[in-house]
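mind reviewing this stuff:

——
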Amino acid sequence: MKVLAELHAYQSGVLREIEIPEAEVIAANGDREALLESAFYWGQNDVQPVERRCSLSVGDVIQIEDARYRVLGLGFVELRGDASVIVGCAHPWNPEKGDPAF
């Protein structure tokens, strides 16, 4: 199963494709949380390296079918409707310096 991740924490929303092995999709048996955990695991570069893409991190968003889920420090939360994502949450904009971190 292929899912997309929006890399907001370190790459300004660049997309990364993640391949979840079919055996894990079958084992999840429709459990969305299990699929999200698998996507996070397989979205790490030490497991499934993708050139010029960082590993999934807190603040990134995983797209599964028509739903989007933000990666939290512990677990995931579904983004509903037109919920926006704060880009660069790991490096917030500093108004004192007058420039964004990205």
Remarks:
- The beta strands are 2-7, 14-19, 61-64, 67-71, 76-79.
